[in-house]
Amino acid sequence: MEKIRTLIEEIKKYNINLFGKDFLLTWDKTSDELKVVLIVAEVLKEMRNNNISPKVFDSGLAISNFRDNSTRTRFSFASACNLLGMGIQDLDEGKSQIAHGETVRETANMISFLSDVIGIRDDMFLGKGHTYMLEVAEALQDGFDQGVLPCRPSIVNLQCDIDHPTQSMADLLHLKNNFGSLENLKGKKIAMTWAYSPSYGKPLSVPQGIIGLMTRFGMHVELAHPEGYDLIPEVIELAKKNAEENGGSFSMSNSMEIAFKDADIVYPKSWAPYSVMEKRTDQLLNNDKEGLKILEKECLENNAKYKNWECDSLKMKVTKNGNALYMHCLPADISGVSCLQGEVAADVFDKYRIETYKEAGYKPYIIAAMILSSRFKDLAQTFGSVLNKNQNRIIN
Amino acid sequence: MEKIRTLIEEIKKYNINLFGKDFLLTWDKTSDELKVVLIVAEVLKEMRNNNISPKVFDSGLAISNFRDNSTRTRFSFASACNLLGMGIQDLDEGKSQIAHGETVRETANMISFLSDVIGIRDDMFLGKGHTYMLEVAEALQDGFDQGVLPCRPSIVNLQCDIDHPTQSMADLLHLKNNFGSLENLKGKKIAMTWAYSPSYGKPLSVPQGIIGLMTRFGMHVELAHPEGYDLIPEVIELAKKNAEENGGSFSMSNSMEIAFKDADIVYPKSWAPYSVMEKRTDQLLNNDKEGLKILEKECLENNAKYKNWECDSLKMKVTKNGNALYMHCLPADISGVSCLQGEVAADVFDKYRIETYKEAGYKPYIIAAMILSSRFKDLAQTFGSVLNKNQNRIIN
Amino acid sequence: MEKIRTLIEEIKKYNINLFGKDFLLTWDKTSDELKVVLIVAEVLKEMRNNNISPKVFDSGLAISNFRDNSTRTRFSFASACNLLGMGIQDLDEGKSQIAHGETVRETANMISFLSDVIGIRDDMFLGKGHTYMLEVAEALQDGFDQGVLPCRPSIVNLQCDIDHPTQSMADLLHLKNNFGSLENLKGKKIAMTWAYSPSYGKPLSVPQGIIGLMTRFGMHVELAHPEGYDLIPEVIELAKKNAEENGGSFSMSNSMEIAFKDADIVYPKSWAPYSVMEKRTDQLLNNDKEGLKILEKECLENNAKYKNWECDSLKMKVTKNGNALYMHCLPADISGVSCLQGEVAADVFDKYRIETYKEAGYKPYIIAAMILSSRFKDLAQTFGSVLNKNQNRIIN
């Protein structure tokens, strides 16, 4: 309880403007706002662990719209919404009439008459996911302004083509707790590197999210990937700018080994090249099955040149004290376990398995914190009301 | 709060018998009962807008059984049940064993041991949907009478082959609010007309629901459709009888223009001809794919003769002051937007878009009102208990 | 209320160790533990019937993982969890990334960060279902021990390859109420027999569950099936041992008539032969479609030799006073109703239809009791808190 009260006091120190706002990209938010989201997440975690129910909604609907498969994020979103008191209704476009030409605007309003939050995952098509979320946001704002909706539901980006803020913020909270504080992250080196995977077409949003966020906390962020596996240029520019403004650095190389050198943290993960994802987006939209097959074949052949981009114990040895923190958004392609050869050697993964699980465990609280901070203006007061209510999560 | 108390007082004036009853067809209900459902819906809407939680169920299951695709009605039902405190469990016949020969009777009981409400959409097969709901109702009553079920869940018709009461009642509430009162609807002309759509096979339940309901409130209801696009004869007879008994009128023509003349309200919407739906039902039940293809082709060719049945600005000019209220259950086939040529011109739809959204926005509250009035005997007392509980929907 | 208080007092008499434990097999539990689960189920049923809400969770997630189709069990689990206050999140492996090679261990942790209960149905593959549940259990325990999970969710077996404890325990509660007490079951004869069905491949877990459980309460359990339709040998051994230890008997024959002779209870139900299920499991795992077709054909031909294994009125005549209690887990294959010829004659089923519905009606409460007893250490105290809270399920 003492810890909870201390954290609530800390929230009061910050001047933020998250109320009524969507959470689409971490770089839309000030550093103070990001810090508050982390603290709110910690309060919620502490509350639940101390059997205090932070149910701030007596009823209310949270809508999940997964335009790509998901287990982890689906359960994280469901857990977060349930914790706060909302029911979850899935907008399954397979089942719905959306497939039959409904406009985004109309649907956004039709599902939102009694909704508080909409979580969207749309990471398949480069140039589309974030744009789609903005379209939904505009439709909701218009519906609210014109008196159609009693409130303006907030959107939480559960992964788009550009950013994956619930992942990167959970990663940041994991780092905060691992290194003791955000302050302690200053000067630390994180290597965000490509890694080989026998599959292809993985979104760019995780590496982009990481370099876009970690450059804001004084870290030395090094991005490494084989030639051709570029990320969206705008995000690269953003990372450079962030680093300049926040006293860290951002560098790039084409070598996992160079990136790992003296790193405090390594984040080796597969992704598709930007240009391939662009081509693939066109083919998917045009239902060009033949083209997709050829592209996949080419891309896998190209991938295969970089099988040595595996996070193994030899490469780990060059990290700080041979003991960098290994991170992954999961599921990892583990050599000899989930595939013949993959992103990470089995012995390295085994050593850090529990750490990666804990990393993932912050996500439900990060999502809940994003929701809470978008729905409640005075977060310290809201938490005060929760404590006054004195409701156990599980009956005593 | 004053408005809420006034509405609750008004409920007390009516003598109704909705408790323990299903809501399958509006014409099963007295006009007083329909009026009370409207008022209950308004109370619920006011409560939610004033952050009062009308959660009357601490737990309880609401079952949705959608035998046809649905986004709007699915979310409306989920919103209504969530607002009242119930969890939603979908009876997905694709996933369940029902497809493997379970009887309706058994399933109805098996899913209802701890259920309070069952919402059913079954509008595909003419002669089947309403019949199915009656079968379920009988099974539930039998289960309750024989001590299998602790309570008899109420059924809410979320659209059948005959009526679409949650739609028509939401439409009526929209009209009540647009014209100031039900009293003000007397003498108003509403044109329920067929409209061209590039698709076919749309249910008859919306136009049937509209002419079956609006003829009870002293309105002049005019039904217009091309020759052959008849509705179920019994509903036509009912509309005539309603009009005679309630001081309005019911007329029919084969011209959109004649129907629109001096109309206060227009409701142009596509539907399939009765005879086609009959034939189609047989073919669907017999899985006669060849027959279905031929029927669709014939029907679309026939439809194409009536492309001029579009609600455009020219036709709108002949309505009362050129300014009739345009209504639609959504999604509308909008010419040049969702199809090449459809039910409504883009400029007409644009003018009324927000009105159609508001029209749809009543549906969750209408469904909640149907549920509430079927589960609670003394609605004024129940609302009194809700107010005494003084529970905010969102924490203060 | 008096009845509830009496039942709660009775719970106090037993010394049990269900807290923090999974419910996978009835034979993992002591007889006292099983008795307490029955009493807890009865308390919950009484509470709900008296409009007392036993909502012990203010929030919390219950996960359902149905690896086989299900209507009844799905709704029973949803009802149970909703009654206790949890939200339900379905782990649909079709939708999730599990199909893409995620390990059981990882997924078990990823879905459990804020979960209290996981219900699993995995009855398709002989030798797999129970093993899978043990794997999940181990992963959850590891996650909890290593600080990944804030609590260790309990697993409820919703049917595996070996046992179907929610079914057999619901059956036992049905018998307890039918015969007045567990004590009264002593010396009663129950015939668990195979019955003919035009389908094949039905799990062995129901008959195994019945002979494994009923032999513990002093009953004379007789198992009958055509030659070759054996159950898992270990369960047969267990039934023998149970009978010896608990003053009843366990016998086997190859005749429905012999089994029915003087039986107080008959439970005629189709299942596949053990050896066929073993072969089928291999074929399913190897996706051997040709082999599956041949096996099905052979098996159905073999089945067809035993069409006389139908529970008809003639066979019922030889039971105790010609009036044995007929039981079935539903849905039954009813001759002339759900199939040409099946497990039970229509007139026999009709006579007992309502009884089988009531039998099924215990399942939600049994599941809720299994959950409650795994999550709360002092059940009498928990029920005391529920009564003190004095919360109506439906508002007064």
Number of strands of chain A: 9
Oligomerization state: homotrimer
CATH class of the largest domain in chain A: Alpha Beta
Q: What is the domain total for the residues of chain A?
A: 2
Low-pLDDT segments of chain A: 95-101
In summary, what is this structure?
The structure is a homotrimer of 396-residue chains. With 396 residues, the first copy, chain A, is of the alpha/beta class.
Features:
15 helices; alpha/beta; Rossmann fold; 4-stranded parallel sheet; 396 residues; homotrimer
Task: Describe the structure in your own words.
- The structure is a homotrimer of 396-residue chains.
- In chain A, the strands form 2 sheets. Chain A has a 5-stranded parallel beta sheet.
- Chain A is of the alpha/beta class and 396 residues long.
- Chain A has helices at residues 2-12, 31-49, 72-84, 104-110, 129-145, 165-179, 205-214, 233-246, 256-260, 274-285, 289-304, 313-317, 346-361, 363-375, 379-389; strands spanning 61-66, 87-90, 115-122, 154-160, 189-194, 220-224, 249-253, 265-269, 325-326.
- Chain A has 2 domains: 2-163 and 363-389, Rossmann fold (3-Layer(aba) Sandwich); 167-360, 3-Layer(aba) Sandwich (Rossmann fold), CATH 3.40.50.1370.
- Chain A is 46% helix and 12% strand.
- In chain A, β1 (61-66), α3 (72-84) and β2 form a beta-alpha-beta unit.
- Chain A starts with a helix and ends in a 7-residue tail after the last helix.
